[in-house]
Structure formats: structure tokens, C-alpha cells
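Q: Convert this sequence to C-alpha cells.
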Amino acid sequence: MPSDAAVQPRGPGRPVNAAIDDQLLRATQDLLIEVGFERLTMDAVAQRCGASKATIYRRWPSKVELAVAAAAQLLTTTEVPDSGDLREDLISCGRAYLQPDGRSAELSASLLVSSRHDAELRQAAHEVLGDPHIALFRSVIVSAVERGAVSADVDVEAIVEVFPSIACQRAVTRGEALHEADVVRVVDAVLLPSLVL
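A:
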């Protein structure tokens, strides 16, 4: 395992050694699932990785930043789809919520429950974990409005909340992530009927 001395930051918060980053984030994910955000400590993460707390703090100055970064590592990232087919673009946006296993759902549930009582965690999680996926749907719907495929009167902000709401409910109440069939069903049964007259 690389020593702390071998890690030379490029600048504030920009470490060179990606391997130790992955180890720290993976350990944080494990601990969030095992003990939750409230009982997560920098000491526990450092001990699990055989690293120092200084190594962690150089990358993530607070527990909130570390926890959100750990969750973000499991997110599916995608470009804004622009096929010209509203249904296919919405399904592509929904696929951003798909995960290969239940790990992301377990971790999301842990953070969602804790964020109810922690405003800093709630804000950071919304900005890093929620906003990027919501922005995908918003961009697709606005583009559809601009090309006349969707009425300009549509309530975009209400519709972009559908997928995150369903994903959160599924994670917290069932500890499960969405599946491809869920994405298609929500697009066909909820989103398209709301958008296309």
C-alpha cells in the first residue's frame, strides 16, 4: 500500500494517488452501510485502510464531504441524451439510477435517513448526488419543449422530481435500487402521459 509520503497533492484537495482514494472511498462505503453516517468516523476509515487521518483530511476536509464522495463514486454518470426521441431520451436519463448491485441503494438509504437531521449532509447530498441526475431530465424536457414535442405549459420542476422520489422511496423502504423494467414503466406510465398530450 502506498505510504502517505508518496501522495503528493496537485493542489488543494487534488491528490495524485488514485489508488488510495479508491481504498478510502470503498472503506467509507462499507462503514456507511455497516454503521451509518452518525457512527462513521475518520478514525475508523483510516484504520480500515491502514492510512492516517491526515491522508483523509487532505482529500475530504469533513465527514460530510467524505460520505458524499463515497456515495458519488457509485453513481452512474451519463451525458445528456439528445436522440430527438423523447421516450428514448427519458429512458436514458432513468438509467442513471440503475446500479449493478444493491450496494448503492444501501448506501443511499443510510445517507437519506441521516440527512433528515443533518442540514449540511442534506444540502451536500442534494448538490452532489441529486442535482446531476435531475439536470439530465430537465435538459431533455426543456429541449423537447423547445422543439415543440412538449407543451410549454408543462410543469418541468414537478416532473423532474419523479425519478429521484421513486429511487429514494425504493432505497429507504426496501433497500433496493431501480431496475431497467422500473425505468421503462415509469417513463411509459408516468412521464410520457404527463408530457405528451
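The radius of gyration is 19 Å.
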